[in-house]
């Protein structure tokens, strides 16, 4: 066995790296959703954190109220969140497209307050436990560290979702329509594609990703009304660092910053909360458009 | 840019069209407001009024940036809150007088404004909002972890002290008139800025930045100056608030606080001088009222936010100006 790495016991190092990878998975899923929505709607969805929380809560409610378990919640909760998102887009957001994009940010900020406040009013601020599904209990001893099965599953699941979303957008016909509509909605509409419906579906899909992240997060973090609001600001910083230009960029930056945060926890724990923001400041100094962004 | 043309605000030249009769009316109105402000502590609870004045100055400072510079900062709580912490610390631990404490708090915010401003103005629009939000969240975590801020407890029992060695601020009326003085100074600075050549350039940048650049203005520098001025005045409000409530806590640096000041300005009317004051008074009153009921405050605030964005983008002052066609849009 290795004694220490840079004076750190390997268990601690890999343990924190795994935690970083888990956090990175959530950053990636959320910034992916933000980037998809931003590409199509030019709106930064401030409600993303609240909808992530909603996904976790729907899973928890399904379990405690209806006895529906994790594996059914995995598709159902994102569906509920997606439908909710579609309704929001149809009734509220769609009224603002002709205005300055900042109004979209302000509207979704108001929505975030409402959703979060409502859950907080109903369920209080204390977290609700959500059990790990039976099939994923226990863990593997990898020799250099102990890997809980569920955490491994979260990393794998988020990778699968991120990669398939990327493939769907870059390689399929539907994705091609989407990219075309992002570039020039008027022209795409002229070709007979229902762009408003596409916008609704894009928003629904983006927030469904947040809902899915919420379900994945439920057994790891407790289900609490406040779980989304602090996360979303870190994700905003991730998005600024990566730049909104590319889907892949959003995903890579998400994982990368998660890992970096984990490393900071090992070597200088006091700074782990702010390391992402410091990196954001540095990136803005050197490359204002973000690592993968284009100047617009 | 369209943010403002949409809200029915026109920047160009209208102020100069103000007729003589209009400006006399405005002067009489301003005098009446001043008299009312001097008399009101005899009618209403002074602590409530001081809260309104502190938040009104905070909202006016924020409005300087969004309303006249077109930059939406989602992190102004950082300046408000850090000034509160610095003022509270210097007054309580170092034993400084209240005026020096507020001055140091304001200076700290100015410094923070230079730091954050030079980073944030590298991007515009939505990115600017996200960057300021992220930077202010960094301040939140620092306030949570640094030893002098006392984490969750905050700095409590800050002595109000004696202003200039003469006025004992433990007297509610002395405290009120001090806050009123601070507010009026801040408001005068903003009024002066908006009506100065600097303010005109700022509006030009807001309306059409490439054109302002082609006219030879170094827009980055103007934006940074506006940002620093706004941060400084937000700090002045925060420092004063720390003395009034004898308290500096994490609440002052949260993103919810940043959102609240956005709401005050939006509700009152972005880009108007009176709007943020009206908005602050309304929001503070509403929160006082809601605190006594069982209604969830964030939900109500969120609903007002959504309603403002959807149907009431001009805000109260903007709506009044549009209805009655007042000549002078900016005061």
Spatial separation of the terminal alpha carbons of chain B: 21 Å
Provide the helix percentage of chain A.
Answer: 55-70%
- How is the main sheet of chain A built? 2 strands, antiparallel
Cα-to-Cα separation, first versus last residue of chain A: 52 Å
Please tally the helical runs of chain B, counting DSSP H or I stretches of 4 or more residues: 14
Question: What's the average pLDDT of chain A?
Answer: 86
Query: Based on the structure, what is the oligomeric state of the protein chains?
Result: heterodimer
Question: Strands across the major sheet of chain A, in which order?
Answer: 1-2
Shape, per Cα inertia axes of chain A? globular
As a whole number of angstroms, the C-alpha radius of gyration of chain B is 19 Å
If you average the pLDDT of chain B, what whole number results? 83
> Within the largest sheet of chain B, what's the order of strands?
1-2
Please provide the count of β strands of chain A.
Answer: 2
Keywords (chain B): Cell membrane, Membrane, Transmembrane, Transmembrane helix
Transmembrane segments (chain B): 25-45, 52-80, 100-119, 126-144, 174-194, 224-249, 261-283, 290-312
Organism (chain B): Azospirillum palustre
Protein name (chain B): Branched-chain amino acid ABC transporter permease
Write the layout of secondary structure elements.
The complex is a heterodimer of chains A (296) and B (331).
Chain A: H1 10-41, H2 48-66, H3 70-91, H4 101-123, E1 139-141, E2 146-148, H5 149-171, H6 173-183, H7 185-190, H8 195-217, H9 229-242, H10 247-267, H11 275-286
Antiparallel strand pairs in A: 1-2
Helix pairs in contact in A: 1-5, 1-8, 1-9, 1-10, 2-3, 2-4, 2-8, 2-9, 3-8, 5-6, 9-10, 9-11
Chain B: H1 2-6, H2 20-39, H3 46-69, H4 77-92, H5 98-120, H6 125-145, E1 162-163, E2 167-168, H7 172-194, H8 197-207, H9 209-214, H10 219-245, H11 255-268, H12 275-291, H13 297-311, H14 315-324
Helix pairs in contact in B: 3-7, 3-10, 3-11, 3-12, 4-5, 4-6, 4-10, 5-6, 5-10, 7-10, 8-10, 11-12, 11-13, 11-14
């Amino acid at each position: 066995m290795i004694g220490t790495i840079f004076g750190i016991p390997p268990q601690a190092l890999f343990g924190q790296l795994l935690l970083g990878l888990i956090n990175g998975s959530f950053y990636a899923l959320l910034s992916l959703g933000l980037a998809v929505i931003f590409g199509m709607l030019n709106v930064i969805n401030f409600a993303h954190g609240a909808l992530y929380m909603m996904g976790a809560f729907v899973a928890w409610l399904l379990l405690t109220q209806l006895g529906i378990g994790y594996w059914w919640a995995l598709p159902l909760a994102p569906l509920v969140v997606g439908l909710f998102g579609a309704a929001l887009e149809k009734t509220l957001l769609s009224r603002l497209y002709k205005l300055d994009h900042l109004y979209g940010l302000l509207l979704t900020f108001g929505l975030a307050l409402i959703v979060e406040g409502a859950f907080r009013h109903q369920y209080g601020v204390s977290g609700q436990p959500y059990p790990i599904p039976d099939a994923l209990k226990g863990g593997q001893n990898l020799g250099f560290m102990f890997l809980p099965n569920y955490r491994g599953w979260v990393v794998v699941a988020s990778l699968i979702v991120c990669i398939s979303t990327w493939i769907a957008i870059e390689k399929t016909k539907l994705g091609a329509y989407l990219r075309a509509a992002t570039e020039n909605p008027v022209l795409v509409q002229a070709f007979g594609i229902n762009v408003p419906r596409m916008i609704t579906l894009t928003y629904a899909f983006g927030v469904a990703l947040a809902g899915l992240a919420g379900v994945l997060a439920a057994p790891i973090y407790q289900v609490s009304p406040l779980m989304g609001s602090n996360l979303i600001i870190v994700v905003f910083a991730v998005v600024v660092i990566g730049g909104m230009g590319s889907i892949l960029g959003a995903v890579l930056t998400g994982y990368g910053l998660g890992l970096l945060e984990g490393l900071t926890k090992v070597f200088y724990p006091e700074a782990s909360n702010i390391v992402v923001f410091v990196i954001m400041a540095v990136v803005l100094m050197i490359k204002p458009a973000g690592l993968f962004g284009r100047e617009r | 840019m369209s943010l403002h043309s949409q809200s029915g605000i026109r920047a160009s030249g209208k102020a100069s069209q103000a007729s003589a009769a209009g400006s006399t009316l405005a002067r009489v109105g301003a005098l009446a407001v001043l008299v009312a402000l001097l008399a009101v502590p005899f009618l209403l609870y002074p602590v409530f009024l001081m809260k309104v004045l502190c938040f009104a100055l905070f909202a006016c400072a924020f409005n300087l940036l969004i309303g006249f510079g077109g930059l939406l900062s989602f992190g102004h709580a950082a300046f408000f809150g850090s000034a509160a912490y610095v003022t509270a610390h210097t007054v309580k631990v170092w034993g400084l007088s209240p005026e020096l404490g507020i001055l140091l708090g304001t200076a700290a915010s100015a410094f923070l404004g230079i730091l954050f401003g030079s980073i944030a103005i590298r991007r515009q629009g939505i990115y600017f909002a996200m960057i300021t939000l992220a930077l202010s969240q960094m301040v939140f975590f620092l306030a949570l972890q640094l030893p002098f801020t006392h984490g969750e407890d905050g700095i409590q029992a800050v002595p109000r002290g004696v202003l200039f060695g003469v006025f004992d601020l433990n007297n509610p009326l002395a405290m009120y008139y001090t806050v009123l003085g601070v507010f009026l100074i801040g408001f005068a600075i903003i009024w002066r800025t908006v009506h100065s050549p600097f303010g005109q350039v700022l509006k030009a940048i807001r309306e059409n930045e490439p054109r302002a650049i082609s006219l030879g203005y170094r827009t980055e520098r103007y934006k940074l100056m506006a940002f620093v001025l706004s941060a400084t005045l937000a700090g002045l409000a925060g420092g004063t608030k720390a003395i009034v409530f004898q308290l500096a806590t994490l609440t002052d640096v949260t993103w919810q606080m940043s959102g609240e000041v956005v709401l005050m300005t939006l509700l009152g009317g972005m880009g108007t001088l009176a709007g943020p004051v009206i908005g602050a008074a309304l929001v503070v009153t509403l929160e006082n009222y809601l605190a006594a009921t069982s209604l969830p405050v964030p939900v109500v605030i969120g609903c007002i936010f959504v309603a403002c964005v959807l149907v009431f983008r001009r805000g109260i002052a903007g709506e009044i100006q549009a209805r009655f066609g007042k000549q002078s849009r900016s005061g």
